[in-house]
Amino acid sequence: MIMVGNSRGNGQNLARHLLSPDNERVSVHAVDGFMSDDLHGAFKEAEAVSKGTRCKKYLFSLSLNPPKDAEVRTDVFDDTIGRVEKKLNLSGQPKAVVFHEKSGADGITRRHCHVVWSRIDSENMKAIPMDYSKRRLNELAKELYLEHEWDMPKGFISPRFRDPKNFTLDQWQQAKRQGQDPREIKAIFQDCWKRSDNKKAFEASLKLHGYHIARGDRRGYVATDMKGEVYSIPKWASVKTKEVKAKLGDRENLPSLEEAKQNIANTLAQTVERLAAEQKAKLDALEKEKEAQAKALAEKHAAQRALQKQLQEQRAAKEEHARKERFNKGLHGLIDRVTGEHGRTKKQNQVEAFQASKRDEAQRDELIMRRLQKQRDLAKRHEEAKAKPQAIRSELKTDLERLEALRNRNRTSKPDGHDREP
Predict the structure, then answer these.
(1) d(CA 25, CA 304)
(2) Which of 64, 124, 328, 357 gets the highest tally of CB atoms within 10 A of its CB?
(3) What is the tens place of the pLDDT at every residue in 220-255?
């Protein structure tokens, strides 16, 4: 669980931030140790107490962010908060706890927690120091990752893993230039040569494989591809130059190498742009489909939460009424107080009320966890569905960049003697 904490003032701004409607759902879990039962009032109290000290940053704000795929229940957050209080010497300090549910860039809804303590020790009228809080929080965070067997972030293990330029395997493979086996290229040239009786047929046959015939600077008869590679036709077709001349005619009648590259780029650019647009349309359609499914899921969950809340409130009212009915009235009630029966009944009611509260909390958690899992499943399906069009679009983007480079590149001074060897 990633923990980010800092001392701060201006409690009203913090209260507005914590209650911001930018989150899909905001739940004030607890406001303890304050006279007020709302965030604005509680933080005003903390500020008022701080006036008796020289402390300007009278609050300590902490965010608790679980791993994205972890199902973290409320009691785990509560336990973590208690351990944080011990680590930072905040035990017994007034605090507020707020839960947020919010969708990330990947479409997955995550649940995280914010805790805000008053730093002012009201008995001694001094601020509790927050020295080394970052180190202490990191130590606790690592303990939690190990205890819950969560996958620990590499950047958490060692700073050297924090380089944002690191690629995934898929990204790296897509970025690498894909080359062809020279044996395959040689087979293409030889096959096109054998199947062609004249220049027109040979030229058309090579174009089907992406090669265009050109006039080289030194080696008269060459071909080039969309990557700008140059191939000597006699070498790659395994024929003599005089045979090539007999079939293709005078080399001066062939386009120059740069002209051939320009022709390739001009011919292919429009096709590649069209294919890229098709892939973008597929991705846009997938995104709209995902948004519609996410909206339907959110609406369904909101209805389930509303129904659950209604049923829990009805049950709570009945249970509270039943507990009140246990107390006798009048003379019997007075006798119960004298004999201690009233106190035993009261204690029993308190135990049952606490158990009922934890039961309702567990039911709410269960509904939340089911919703989060469905969100993760939806996001996973969406990522799998768009993986292929994304990879194709990335490849097409690279092709377009190469084509533009071919279109804009000036004629080099290198002779075609630097063409690829078979």
Answers:
(1) 14
(2) 64
(3) 899 988 677 888 999 889 899 999 999 999 888 899
